[in-house]
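Journal club prep — side note

Before the paper discussion, L.F. wants everyone to see what a predicted structure for a comparable chain looks like in C-alpha cell form. Sequence:
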Amino acid sequence: MDINKRIAKHFSDSAELKLRVKDSLAKPIAAASQVFFDCVTNDHKILCCGNGGSAGDAQHFAAELINRFEKERPGLACIALTTDSSIITSIGNDYDFNQIFSKQVNALGLPGDTLLAISTSGNSANVLAAIKAAHTRSMTVIALTGRNGGEMARALRPDDILICVDAQSTARIQEVHLVCLHSLCDIIDYLLLGE
C-alpha cells in the first residue's frame, strides 16, 4: 500500500466507525449532557481525568467549558485533574501512581459534583480508583471508554452513565471520543442557551 492510500484509509476507517456508532451513542451522550448541565447549573463542578491522549481529552473538555465552546456564555465549573505536575508527581512519589486522580477527587469532589472518567480500554487503574473515590464522595460518574468498557463499565452504579465506543483501535476510539466531547459541549450549550 502506498503512503497516500494508507493515509486515506485512516480517514475512511475513522468516518466509518463514527457513522456506525452514532445511533448507539446518541442516548448516553444526551443523558450525560443532562447530568453535566444539572451539575454546573446547580453550583457544582465537573472533575475530569484520563491518561495520555485521554488526559489531553480531559483538558480539552475542561477548556471548552471554562472558556467557551462555539457560543459566548459564562464559564462553567470544570477541572482537569491531569494538569498540576506538582500534585501528580507528589502523589506518585509519596504514594502510588494509581492514586494520582483519586486523591484529588477525595480532596476536591463534593456531593453533587460529577466525574468524567476517560479511558480507551476502560481498564486504567488510576481512573478506576477515581471512580471509586467519586462514589465515596456521592458524585455521579460519566465514563467515556472503548472496546467493551472494561473494568470501568463494571464499576459504575445505576445512576452513572457509560459512553462506550465499540471498537478495538485506540486511535479510532480516541477520534470518536473527541466527537463525543464536542457533542457534550454542544448539548450543554443548547440546554443553557437554546438555538
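L.F.'s comment for the group: The CA atoms of residues 73 and 83 lie 24 Å apart. Keep this in mind when we get to the figures.
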